[in-house]
Design goal:
The complex is a heterotrimer. Chain A contains three helices and two strands; from the N terminus they run ααβαβ. Chain A is mainly alpha-helical. Chain A has a domain of about 40 residues: Histone, subunit A. Chain B starts with 7 loop residues before the first helix and ends with a helix. In chain C, the strands form four sheets. In chain C, strands 1, 3, 7, 8, 9, 12, 13, 14, 15 and 16 form a ten-stranded mixed beta sheet that branches. Chain C has a three-stranded antiparallel beta sheet with strand order 6-5-17, with no helix packed on it. In chain C, strands 4-18 form a two-stranded antiparallel ribbon. The chains are: A mainly alpha, B alpha/beta, C alpha+beta.
C-alpha cells in the first residue's frame, strides 16, 4: 500500500496517523488486505450478494408526527452550542 | 450472606422467600465490585440501584427479574447514565434515551448496577483495546477474559453479578463466555432490537446475555428479545417462551460436527473435552452426524471485509459536532474532524475504519465488499443445507483457553483467528451459544452450540440437558488464590 | 465558431409529507431552529431509520405522472462524506435501485414543443442547514431540515438552452404542485435545481467538459446562471483553454458563477447498501391504491374540458392547471347547464378577485353552492351578467347567499317589455338631439342610448331586450 493510498483513505476517514504509528498501521493494513484477498479466488458467478441475513422487506411507517422537540437536551450535551444552534468553526464554501 | 456465584434462579428464590432483601443484594453487589480487581466495570450506578432495590422491597416492583442486580454492556444506551463503548470519544456521553434491550430488562424489574467494560466499539477479542483499561480474567489476572464483551463475562465469572448483557458481532459473547467459564448466548439476528445498541457492524451485531447457566439465559432472553418497530431489521415473528421446551428429551436428536473445523490441530485438552462432551450427549440418546460447511474457511476474510466496511460508515457520526469528544485548539473544520477523531479513537478502531474505508473506496467495491457479500450468501446456504440433516451444530467456541494479556496485540491477524469458530454464525445470522465444558492449561474452555434460524429454544434445550448431566458450569475461579 | 449547449438538470423536490423520510419529526417549514429534530435526525449513537410510507406514495405518483417505470422493489444506499449539517456522516439515498426510472416531461418554449427524457427519480434524505453569518469566526448548524424526504429528479442531458431549462423547471414545478408531491415554494427551498452545463461545437458528438452549478432557487436565476456559464465556457474554449470540471455557485448579486472552494481530495462517496434498511417493496395492492387515487393530469383535463364542455382552449388550460380551480369547476358543471359561462366567470371575474387577494379559491368566501346559484340566476335571466359581477364582488367580501343579495338590493333583471318601452320612450324624448344625429347616420350613438337606458334602470335592464327594443324604437 503506497503512501498516497494511506493518505487518501486517512483523509476520507478524517483520521491522522501519528508518524510513529503510520508505518505499523500501514504494515497492518497490508497484511489484512493480503489476508482478505483470499476472497478473490472464489467463484461467485451466479451468487447474489447477501446484504442482510434476514432477507425480509422493510417495514413502512405511517406519516404522523410523533416526535417532540428535544432542543434543550441536545444542545446541552453538545461540545459547543448557543441557545439555538450547534456551533462549529467557520465553514467556507 | 455470600451471594457470589449464585444463579439468577437462586437469587430469585432468596428474594421470594425474603431470605435476603433486594437492598442487601444490591449493597453486597457493590461491595464485591469495589473489592474486585478485574476492572470489569466502567460506570457504576449505586444511588439509583438502591432506590430501585428499596422500591422492590416495598413491593412496588414486579416482574420476572424484579429486584435482581444485573449489568449492561457499555454499548447499550442507558438513559442519563454515561455510555462510553469503551472509548475516549464517548467519555462524557450521557444518552437521552434507553436502548430497547435496556428498557425491556428494566420493565422486567431488574436493577442495572452499572456498565461493563468492553473492547472499544466492540472491536476486539480480548478486551485489551478499551480506553478504560484492560479487563482481567478472574481465573488468571494475567490473562484476557476474551472480547469484546470482556467486562460482562468477567463480572459474571467473578460472581459479581448473576447476569450481564453482551453483544456479539463475530463472537463477542461466545468467546468471552468460553474463556471465563460461563454461559453466553447470541440469538438469531433480528430477535433482539438494535435500537439503542451502538452500531459496530449493523448486519452482524446482535444483543445477547451472559449468565451462570442455560436456564438463566433462557429467562433473560425472554425479555431481551422483542419485536421493535423502531428497528427496521427487527424480526416480527412470534416471540417464544424459551423456558417452555428447555427440558425436552434429546433422545433421537442429531448434532452436526463440522468436517471443515479440523480440531485435530488444537490442543489435546481441547480435543479431549470435545470428545467428553460428545459422550455426554450420546448418553442422552443424541446421534452425531458429520456435516459439511464447505465455505466455512471464507468466514474470517469475509467478516474482515464486511464488518470494517460497515463500521467505517457507522463511526462517521463521531465527528465532534453534536456530541462526544471534541479536541482542543482547533482552528478550522478539518482540524475539528481530524483531531477529534484521531484523539478520540484507539488504534484498533482506527485500523478497522481504515480497512473499511479502503474496501469501499472507488475501484475496490466489487473486489472486496461485493465479493464478501457473495461469500456470505454461500456460507448461509451451507448452514441451511446442513440444518436439513441435524438439529444443532457443535464445535469448540475458541481455539484454546485464555491467552496472556499483551501476547496477541502485536499481530492483528493472530487476534482475528480467535474468531474462527464463532464468526460464521454472525455472517449467517443463526443463533449460537457457548457453555463451559472443560479446561485447557488450567483455564476454562467452551463448547459452542449453533442452531437454525429462530431456534434458540433448541440450543438452550441441548445446553440445559448438558448442564443437568455435568458440572462445568458450576465451577468458579478461586479468587483468594489468584488475587 | 458555432457552439451548442448541453444541459442536464438535477432537481431536488422536498416532498410535502408530514414527517421526515426516516423519523417521525415534523417537516414544517420555518420553526425555531433545532426543534424538529428527532433522536434519529441527530444521528445519535444507536438510532435506526424506519422509512416513511407516504414518501414512497408521492414518489410513485410522480413516476406515474411522467410515465416512468416504477421499481416496486427498491433499495437504499449510504453516501459517505463529512459535513457539519450531515449528522451521521453519510446520507441515505438510492444509488443502485431507485424507486423511479425513465419517464419524460413535455415542455413548451414560446410555442415550440419538446420532450425531455428523465433518467431517474430517487428518494433521499435532506441535510440540515449551515449558517455562516451568525458569528464572525464560527458557523452554526440547524438540523430541522435534516432527514426531510427529497425526490431527486435527474434529466437526461437533452436541454439545449437556458430558456428550455426554465421551461422544464416550470413544467416540473406545476406538476409536483398539482400532484401534491411538493409545495413548490422555491423561496423556501422546496424545489432546488442543480444545472450541469457543457458546450461543444455544433456537429460534435462528444460531450464537452461539464460544470455543475449548485442550488439555484428561482426561475430567473436559473436562466441567468446558465446563460452566464455558457458565455464563460465559450470564452474559455475560444481562448484555447480547457474548461475545468468543477462545482460552481451562482452569485445573484454579481450575476456570475464562481467555483466552490476546491477540495484537496476528490470526494469518494463509497456507496454501499444501507445495512439498517431492508429492500422496500411496494405490493401490487399498494400500487393499485396509488393508481386509483391518481389525479387526472392538467393536460388530459384540459382536453376533456374542451371536448366535453366546449369551453375555450385558454380557459381550459388555466382551469386545469390548478387543482383547486378544476375541482371547483367540476362541481359547478354538475349542476349548471352553461359550463361555458362557469368557465368564463372562473377565469375572468373570479380569477381577478383571486389574484387581487392572492388566495386559492377554496380559501375564498365563494362556496360552490353559491356559485351554482349565481350561474342559475344568470341562465334563467333573473340577473344580467353585468349585475352578476357586482353580486360576485359582494359575495367575495361577505360570503352572503346570492339570492339574498339579489332580493335585498332588488337586482332582479328587468325583462318586462312594457316597462322597458316606457323607459326607452323617456330616453328618446329627453335626448332629441342625439336621436336626430343618430337618424342622420351617427350609428355609434346607439351605445349612448343603451347607456342611458341602463342608467335609468340602475343597470338592471336585460341587455338583449334593451337592444331589440331600442332598435325598434329608433328605427321607427
Amino acid at each position: 500500500m503506497d503512501n498516497k493510498t494511506i493518505e487518501t483513505i486517512s483523509y476520507l476517514a478524517r483520521l491522522q496517523l501519528g508518524d510513529d504509528k503510520k508505518e505499523k498501521i500501514t504494515k497492518d493494513l497490508e497484511n489484512i488486505i493480503n489476508f482478505v484477498d483470499e476472497l478473490q479466488n472464489i467463484d461467485t458467478d451466479d451468487i447474489a450478494p447477501l446484504a442482510n441475513p434476514l432477507e425480509k422487506i422493510a417495514p413502512k411507517r405511517e406519516d404522523s408526527v410523533t416526535s417532540k422537540s428535544r432542543k434543550e437536551a441536545f444542545l446541552l450535551n453538545s461540545p459547543e452550542s448557543d441557545q439555538n444552534y450547534f456551533i462549529v468553526p467557520k465553514v467556507v464554501e | 450472606m455470600n451471594i457470589r456465584f449464585k444463579t439468577l434462579s437462586e437469587l430469585k428464590k432468596l428474594l421470594e422467600t425474603k431470605e435476603i432483601s433486594s437492598c442487601e443484594l444490591v449493597s453486597e453487589t457493590f461491595k464485591n465490585i469495589a473489592s474486585s480487581k478485574t476492572n470489569s466495570f466502567i460506570t457504576l450506578d449505586e444511588e439509583r440501584s438502591l432506590i430501585k432495590a428499596r422500591a422492590f422491597d416495598e413491593g412496588k416492583i414486579k416482574g420476572d427479574l424484579a429486584g435482581i442486580p444485573i449489568a449492561q454492556k457499555d454499548l447499550f444506551c442507558t438513559k442519563n447514565l454515561r455510555t462510553t463503548c469503551g472509548s475516549r470519544i464517548l467519555e462524557n456521553f450521557i444518552p437521552p434515551y434507553d436502548a430497547t434491550v435496556v428498557e425491556n430488562l428494566n420493565a422486567a424489574g431488574s436493577i442495572c448496577v452499572g456498565k461493563t467494560n468492553m473492547d472499544e466499539f466492540a472491536m476486539g477479542s480480548s478486551n485489551e483495546t478499551s480506553y478504560y483499561g484492560t479487563v482481567k480474567n478472574p481465573w488468571d489476572f494475567e490473562r484476557v477474559p476474551g472480547g469484546s464483551s470482556g467486562g460482562s463475562a468477567a463480572a459474571v465469572s467473578e460472581g459479581l453479578i448473576c447476569a450481564a448483557t453482551g453483544t456479539d458481532t463475530g463472537g463477542s459473547i461466545r468467546q468471552p463466555a468460553a474463556l471465563c467459564g460461563i454461559t453466553g448466548i447470541k440469538p438469531t439476528y433480528g430477535r433482539a432490537s438494535r435500537w439503542g445498541m451502538i452500531a459496530f457492524a449493523s448486519s452482524l451485531d446482535q444483543a445477547g446475555t451472559f449468565a451462570r447457566n442455560a436456564e438463566d439465559c433462557a429467562l433473560l432472553l425472554n425479555h431481551i428479545c422483542s419485536h421493535d418497530t423502531k428497528d427496521s431489521t427487527s424480526i416480527s415473528d412470534e416471540q417464544e417462551n424459551y423456558l417452555e421446551n428447555i427440558d425436552d428429551d434429546l433422545k433421537g436428536k442429531k448434532i452436526g460436527i463440522v468436517k471443515e473445523f479440523d480440531i485435530s490441530n488444537l490442543n489435546k485438552e481441547v480435543q479431549d473435552s470435545f470428545e467428553e462432551s460428545k459422550k455426554i450427549f450420546e448418553a442422552l440418546g443424541v446421534n452425531f452426524v458429520e456435516v459439511s460447511l464447505p465455505n466455512i474457511k471464507l468466514s474470517v476474510p469475509t467478516y474482515y471485509v464486511v464488518a470494517p466496511a460497515e463500521c467505517s460508515s457507522n463511526l462517521s457520526r463521531f465527528d465532534g459536532v453534536k456530541y462526544g469528544y471534541r479536541a482542543n485548539n482547533i482552528n478550522n473544520l478539518e482540524e475539528l474532524y481530524i483531531k477529534s477523531r484521531s484523539e478520540g479513537f484507539g488504534d484498533e478502531v482506527k485500523r478497522r475504519i481504515l480497512i473499511g474505508t479502503y474496501v469501499l473506496s472507488a475501484g475496490f467495491y466489487d473486489a472486496y465488499y461485493k465479493k464478501a457479500q457473495q461469500s456470505r450468501r454461500m456460507i448461509k446456504n451451507d448452514f441451511m443445507e446442513a440444518f436439513k440433516d441435524v438439529d444443532i451444530i457443535m464445535s469448540p467456541s475458541s481455539p484454546s483457553s485464555a491467552f496472556k494479556i499483551g501476547s496477541k496485540t502485536e499481530d492483528p491477524i493472530e487476534m482475528y483467528l480467535e474468531d474462527l469458530f464463532t464468526i460464521s454464525a454472525n455472517l449467517a445470522g443463526v443463533p449460537a451459544m457457548s457453555i463451559p465444558h472443560g479446561f485447557a492449561y488450567g483455564l476454562p474452555i467452551g463448547l459452542q452450540l449453533m442452531g437454525n434460524y429462530l431456534e434458540e429454544s433448541k440450543i438452550l434445550n441441548f445446553a440445559h440437558q448438558y448442564q443437568k448431566n455435568s458440572d462445568w458450569h458450576i465451577k468458579s475461579p478461586n479468587l483468594e488464590e489468584i488475587s | 465558431m458555432s457552439w451548442e449547449t448541453v444541459i442536464g438538470l438535477e432537481v431536488h423536490a422536498q416532498l410535502s409529507t408530514n414527517t421526515k423520510l426516516f423519523s417521525s419529526a415534523s417537516t414544517q417549514f420555518g420553526s425555531e431552529p433545532n426543534t424538529q429534530v428527532d433522536l434519529v435526525d441527530l444521528g445519535l449513537p444507536g438510532v435506526l431509520p424506519v422509512v416513511n410510507k407516504d414518501a414512497f406514495k408521492k414518489a410513485i405518483r410522480f413516476g406515474l405522472a411522467i410515465k416512468a417505470d416504477i421499481n416496486q422493489e427498491s433499495t437504499f444506499d449510504r453516501k459517505n462524506y463529512f459535513y457539519p449539517d450531515l449528522p451521521k456522516g453519510y446520507q441515505i439515498t438510492q444509488m443502485t435501485k431507485p424507486i423511479v426510472e425513465g419517464g419524460l416531461i413535455d415542455i413548451d418554449v414560446d410555442g415550440d414543443k419538446k420532450t425531455i427524457n428523465i433518467t431517474r427519480a430517487h428518494l433521499e434524505e435532506d441535510a440540515g442547514k449551515s449558517i455562516h453569518d451568525a458569528y464572525p469566526d464560527k458557523s452554526v448548524i440547524d438540523l430541522n431540515r435534516a432527514g426531510t424526504p427529497l425526490l431527486e429528479i435527474v434529466s437526461e442531458p437533452e436541454i439545449s438552452s437556458a430558456k428550455e431549462a426554465v421551461a422544464y423547471m416550470k413544467a416540473l414545478h406545476q406538476l409536483v404542485i398539482f400532484l401534491d408531491v411538493c409545495d413548490g415554494d422555491m423561496s423556501q427551498g422546496s424545489l432546488r435545481c442543480d444545472a450541469n452545463v457543457s458546450i461543444r461545437k455544433v456537429g460534435d458528438s462528444e460531450l464537452g467538459t461539464r460544470t455543475e452549478i449548485k442550488n439555484i432557487n428561482s426561475f430567473k436565476f436559473i436562466e441567468k446562471a446558465i446563460n452566464f456559464e455558457i458565455k464563460r465556457q465559450i470564452k474559455v474554449l475560444e481562448s484555447g483553454e480547457k474548461v475545468t470540471q468543477e462545482t460552481r455557485l451562482y452569485d445573484s448579486g454579481k450575476d456570475e458563477t464562481r467555483p466552490m472552494r476546491s477540495k484537496e481530495f476528490a470526494n469518494d462517496y463509497r456507496y454501499f447498501p444501507d445495512p439498517d434498511l431492508l429492500p422496500v417493496v411496494i405490493s401490487n395492492d399498494e400500487m393499485e391504491e396509488i393508481r386509483s387515487t391518481f389525479p387526472e393530469l392538467p393536460a388530459d383535463k384540459s382536453k376533456r374540458y374542451i371536448s366535453e364542455f366546449q369551453i375555450d382552449k385558454s380557459e381550459a388550460e388555466i382551469i386545469s392547471s390548478s387543482r383547486e380551480l378544476s375541482n371547483f369547476f367540476e362541481v359547478a358543471v354538475e349542476s349548471t347547464n352553461d359550463p361555458k359561462l362557469a368557465a368564463n366567470l372562473l377565469v375572468g371575474e373570479i380569477g381577478s378577485l383571486l389574484n387581487k387577494d392572492n388566495i386559492k379559491i377554496d380559501e375564498s368566501k365563494l362556496s360552490s353552492n353559491n356559485f351554482n346559484i349565481l350561474l342559475q340566476r344568470i341562465s334563467d335571466g333573473t340577473i344580467s351578467k353585468k349585475i352578476a359581477k357586482t353580486i360576485l364582488a359582494e359575495i367575495w367580501e361577505t360570503g352572503r347567499n346570492a339570492d339574498e343579495i339579489i332580493n335585498d338590493q332588488g337586482l332582479v333583471q328587468i325583462q318586462d317589455e312594457t316597462l322597458l318601452e316606457e323607459v326607452i320612450i323617456k330616453v328618446i324624448e329627453s335626448n332629441s338631439k342625439q336621436v336626430e344625429d343618430y337618424k342622420n347616420g351617427k350609428d355609434k350613438l346607439f351605445g349612448f342610448f343603451v347607456g342611458q337606458v341602463m342608467k335609468e334602470t340602475q343597470g338592471k335592464a336585460n341587455p338583449q331586450a334593451v337592444n331589440d327594443l331600442l332598435k325598434k324604437a329608433l328605427n321607427s
